[in-house]
User: Fold these one by one.
Assistant:
Number 1:
Amino acid sequence: MTCLHTISKSPASKLLSTCASVLNPGDGILFIEDGVYYCSLAESGRHRSSDIRLFGLKEDAAARGLSVRSAADVELVDYAGFVELCCEYDKIVSWF
């Protein structure tokens, strides 16, 4: 059973390392709200294996004045992509 984890707090919250401790193969992480600050950090991929996909919400990054480019291992998605991800994964866990 795959899970999409959403992280909505900035890297100062250390939620990514907590989330990483429960990741399973095939899971994904979507950075939303202040969580998009992870998208510009090299550490975002440090906590995962290669079979964990990373996403960032493009609109939230733009709202915070962040470049629409992200770290190489983070795929930026729009709101429609967010909805598609919610349908793609079996369950969703929100970290806040």
Note: The longest strand covers residues 3-7.
Number 2:
Amino acid sequence: MRRRSLLKTAQVQINKQLGTYSQVVARQATSCKTVHFVRHAQGIHNEAYHKYGKVSNTMERFEDAELTALGKEQCATAKAEWASARGRHGYGPPELVVVSPLRRCLQTATLAFGQYAGQVPWVALEEVRERNGHHPCDRRRPLAHARKEFPHVDFSLVKDEEDVTWGDGRWRESDEEMAVRSAALLKFLAGRPERNIIVVTHSAFLLCTFNKVVVCEPELRRWFANCERRSVALDFGADPATRQLCQPEASTLTIATDEPAAPKS
């Protein structure tokens, strides 16, 4: 009887101490990685879309779009916000920067996180580029331009000098095709030794990742604003059914073993 009373009292005290933290889960730290997903800052194609609408999507002058003056200001703000977030949430310095080979992402990564250039690996991946096809803004320039402008980035995993994945411009990549690229990114991250990683990518790719590849709360399914960062903890557990993706500051998600139902609009 006394033991039962002690257990009840202890449970009350535990609940009081934990408050809104109804459940605290301990996992092996070796299976977890912190990933900071960042959308690029405003590009000239974004500015044109606001001015001219969809017709701007097919304008050749926006090929491999660069940042606007506002976009560069957004990067400066993101750099300051990152320093503040590191203090608030105890993030360590990144050990790896993964970036799309498109110019606006390379610029964003360099302006917002350039203090880490030369200190940690910077890797360009075709897998994290924007939706392929039809829109010239999403067609990259030959690699020679990027290598010259961003010498701190390793482009060795980008196989082709010319952009062969964008296609002939008559089609636009499907969500399903992008989801395969997203899964390839997760596999790449799982195989890397680094545990604190920045990924600078694009809005459609991020939307596909959080809606097609991972199961998550509605808040995390929403569109990323220009230069927005969302920091998550990826748990690459041995059992695919228990792999989880969680936002330390907010919520928990599960990596889908099958494609989830489409989210409600």
Note: The chain has eight helices and eight strands.
Number 3:
Amino acid sequence: MDSYWSAVVWSLLPTLVICVVFWYILRSILRFDRTERRAYARIEAEERARRGMPPRADDQDQTTAD
């Protein structure tokens, strides 16, 4: 019976490892995208302020959402 459970564990382990790696990669991509968009919005807001342009309409919504 012990060999049965070890076979079950060894059968499921590769699938679980691949799932965890896939989840981590997707999580990293989504976090990077979120951070990049936030940085780009900050830079764009600074440029608009420097040129004396009014802030974008959706910028005001984002600042209240944070």
Note: The chain has two helices and no strands.
Number 4:
Amino acid sequence: GEDVVGLAQTGSGKTAAFAIPLIESLNRKARGVQALVLVPTRELAAQAAAEISNLSSHDRPVVVCGGVPIGPQIKALKNRSAAVVVGTPGRILDHLQRGTLRLGAVHYLVLDEADRMLDMGFAPDVGRILSNTPENRQTALFSATMPGVIRGMVKRHMRSPQYLTVESEAPTVDTVEQVYYQVEGRDKTRALRALIDAEDDPLALVFRRTKHGATKLHRQLERDGYKAALLHGGKSQSQRTKTLAGFANGRSRILVATNVASRGLDIPNVSHVVNYDLPEDVETYVHRIGRTARAGKDGVAATLVGEAEVKEFDKIQRSLPVQVRRSNLPLSA
């Protein structure tokens, strides 16, 4: 029952790492919520719940996320067999305030992708949720990075945790063909079009840093006749589900996304990841490019480097185990 802090990249198999002891800890004769899993996004909640269900046919988690009607969640939480809840902090807190969720019986708590959760502004919500759980609970925290805010949370809310590294089952950066193109900032859209046009029907995931930037690029691509879709944190659950389904089945060939989409997405046939905007750090770079070359398939990660971004990209490169190859844009650029 020791607390655990796991350094784990997305796709590293960490869901099984916490799900198996979670399932083993459940007392099926007891009532009330015994285990709580907090994740940053709806997609990650659905994936974690599905993996727990796959590992144990007896334990079907209640998924509690925003962007969908709250009524069915309230009904599910009233079920006396609802021993495991998986959800996002905002909606979990909503249920606590409504009195439709009680955490007094929780003995196993998981904070998954904690760094991303706090990056998205959930720190106050997470703190309030933790204060509603018993102090003698077992806590497992998983994070790709360990910034000061995470270390502070560990110090405040965990008891002498064991530290471990969860080995990655996802494609490592050396299994992806990595290239970069040096372009003038205002020519990035033209460069992106040239890359897409040079390939035979690619399925491309294009990353921008901001919601505004992603929206602007999506509009430009649609105006130019490309089958493009848009994914960012401001989308409703139904919009996100429809967008991801359309991209996965090929109705849209380009998905313009913010970093929220770089974690937890598992779309097997993505042929290209394009860093239209540079990632903030090497961890984000690795998370982004890990969306391609999945399930044994080939994949290309292309980064567009503006003239003012060369030093920033060099810093990322120095932290990678392989050298990113510089290439020339196709002649149409």
Note: The longest strand covers residues 177-183.
